[in-house]
Amino acid sequence: DAKTTQPNSMESNEEEPVHLPCNHSTISGTDYIHWYRQLPSQGPEYVIHGLTSNVNNRMASLAIAEDRKSSTLILHRATLRDAAVYYCILRDVSGNQFYFGTGTSLTVIP
Amino acid sequence: EPEVTQTPSHQVTQMGQEVILRCVPISNHLYFYWYRQILGQKVEFLVSFYNNEISEKSEIFDDQFSVERPDGSNFTLKIRSTKLEDSAMYFCASSERGTGYTEAFFGQGTRLTVV
To answer: Hey, which bits of chain A come out as E strands?
Structure first.
């Protein structure tokens, strides 16, 4: 699986938007961009995924650069419950397992 | 909402003992996975399983580990002779398909402590 690079940590104020960046300069044309998060003492949780176009769901939005070498997970209004480690993962279309990196630890300040 | 369930939530075992970690994947899912997370470290892939066979495994998944789907609902991870370094959170996951455009759903984990 291609490698992703994320900042180790970020902070956000509660009720403000959060933009979590991910670089994946070696992404291939068949790699899907997935985001998962892991709340303290819990298992990883699916957030969103996309291929080329921006995606929205009830949890977040995913903005994908035109050249696909980077993406941004957007939480529109951070809550205290969004404090977690966020993982950006690439999966080939025929891929099976996920390979987790070290992720971004998001702290939400009340 | 369907979920992956894991039992037990916490298991303490003596070094050298065998342990079986149990998982009930989401019912219509066909692909199953085990991951582990040593305290303070990243989530590591162990094995994926489809159609009653291992489809991929990592170098961590050596001869001490085995997986089984003993019936239509359970998916188990067995560690034959536990070592201190096997102490970790073990996560089971399942997905409907084993493709890059499919999301996986993870259980809450089993904390294994080897003493």
So the answer is: 9-13, 18-23, 31-38, 45-50, 55-56, 61-64, 70-75, 84-92, 104-109
Q: Which residues in chain A are closer than 8 Å to B40, comparing Cβ atoms?
A: none
Per cent of chain A over pLDDT 90 is: 82
What's the start-to-end Cα distance of chain A, in Å?
A: 37
Q: How far is the C-alpha of A13 from the C-alpha of B85, rounded, in Å?
A: 38
Instruction: With beta carbons less than 8 A apart as the criterion, state whether B67 and B48 touch.
Output: no
Residue B26 predicted with pLDDT over 70: yes
DSSP β-bridge partners for residue B24:
B5
Sheet containing A55-56: order of strands: A18-23, A70-75, A61-64, A55-56
Interface membership of A51 toward B (CB under 8 Å): yes
A73-98 tens-digit pLDDT: 999 999 999 999 999 999 888 777 77
Of the candidates A35, A33, A57, the residue with the CA atom closest to the CA atom of residue A45: A35
Rounded to whole angstroms, the Cα distance separating A99 from B1 reads 26
Residues of A in contact with B107 (CB under 8 A): 43
